[in-house]
Amino acid sequence: MTAIGTFLRWAAIALLATFALFPIYWMLVIAMTPTGFSRSLDGIWPTVFTTENFTRIFAERPMTRWILNSVIVAGLTSALSLLVGTSCGYALSRIRFRGAGALMLLLLVTQMMPATSIIVPLYILFARVGLLDTMQGMVIGHVSLVLPLAIWMSKGFFDRIPSDLDGAARIDGCTRLSAWWYVALPLAAPGLAAIFIYGFVTSWHDFLFAHTLVHTPSRWTAANGIVSFRGEYFTLHEMQMAAALVFAAPVIVIFVLMQRWIVEGALTGSVR
Amino acid sequence: MITPRSRRWVAPGRIGRGWIWFADGPGFPLLMLFPSLIVLGLVIGLPILRAIEMSFDTLNLRRPANNGETGLHNYLRLLADQRAWNALGLSALFMAGSVAGSVGLALAAALLTRRVTRGQALVRLTFLIPWTVPAVVTALVWGVMYDGNFGVVNRMLDSAGLGPGANWLIDRRTALWALLAAQVWNEFPMSFVFLLAGLMAIPTELYESARIDRAGPWSQFRFVTLPQLRPVLAITVVLSMIMGFKAFPIIFVLTGGGPNRATETLTVLTFTTAFRDLDFAYAATLGVLALVVSALMVTGYLRLVARLDDGREVT
Hints:
The complex is a heterodimer.
Chain A: H1 2-31, H2 52-60, H3 63-94, H4 100-112, H5 116-129, H6 135-159, H7 163-171, H8 176-187, H9 189-205, H10 208-213, H11 222-227, H12 237-257, H13 259-269
Chain B: H1 4-10, H2 14-23, H3 28-54, H4 73-80, H5 82-113, H6 120-128, H7 135-146, H8 152-159, H9 175-200, H10 204-212, H11 217-246, H12 249-254, H13 266-275, H14 280-314
């Protein structure tokens, strides 16, 4: 019984693991198949390897530019949200004030509504003030995605720092402001780093804003760039997969390296 | 040497006292909240207000004749709009499908791995990896796999003797299910994390006493695991629903709402109405509808979280 049970359990785990990993494996296989040959692949094992697709996406398309744009937009978005959001998170964690509950509720709703609801008015507003087709506009758009997350998560991290510590600082003569700045903030530093990474990844992964707010290819972020490999009638699967891999790999690697940390951060934001 | 100027800095003058009012007094919450409230107001509050305003307006770049007309016409149109109802129905179906798929799969994965001791971290990492793949990339990869002529899905079905496969994304009957598979692949790790955390929190004594009562694996699941897990499970279901409702890149990139609107959910319809039909006012109305639906779901979610917290305080 137990032997069969163990076997069945591992068989089921293997099946699920195959489901989870196969698309990533297949992305790798296609990305390393010579351009134009994925259609004649036989079976699911690769037979030839080439790095041609990777060199071609950088040589024939502005892939470097797109990645750089993504880094700039994601970095600015996340830094701005962190800068603005942590003080609000601290206030929500430590101070009872009227409207705190309403604010939390609003933050949650904005985080959970489809971004398509906000993109239409944002587009019209940006058209009026000349922010369409600019990187500044992209950053502003992404802040609307990341800031609620940053506030919500930083509240979670401040909640876990005992308030006695800021209290002690205030007895020693700190103002409430410096108690936050010199005591609570440094203690929350690992959490703030996690928020930065989360915000960065959210912005890096965003497709809707990237696809809507910017038209000029040299200002695209990579999320929109990699979709452009799709033609109306014909798609070069190999180059597309290579580009998709280049785009997705950094986040996958970061995640694998810092798994525990990030999962904990995600839980802080919601269940806990 | 003390100049009058520097003396003003040392003495607690009006400016200094004002600063203290912010740094250590009743103004402190204001100081802390101010930056966020300004930015939130600009990047979220303003667009939402504008969307509501637009929903009573007319702004169609294709047919600009009536632009500027105000009234309830967008909402009246919404009530009679087959396309919008179709989209709402498809969103509901997509939500149901992604909940059933991701929560079911995540529950299976969590139950299977919770008592695994050897290679535990590796197994969990494996299940978490699809989470890290961006939705756009998910769409592109599944698109390549679904390719009707050369896709690996059809080729595997073929070699397994299960027939010639299908043109997954072009066939009306399969398109939505094909999208759901991609969505489930991308989203089930989130549910897995929550459910695994929920399972780990169940006290082992409960299982010990169940075993003393000679409860088999099924009864243990039915009478210990399920009731204990229910709060977390409910939260996971609602979160997964919200994710399904929000889904956009996977559907938009893979089918764009086609074939013949068979996958046109509310998010895709909103986008298409605005940026293909250029009817911004009606798109804003659809956006407001989506906002109302998400607000309702968030309310449900908060109720569940509150109940979970109550439960924790009791135990």
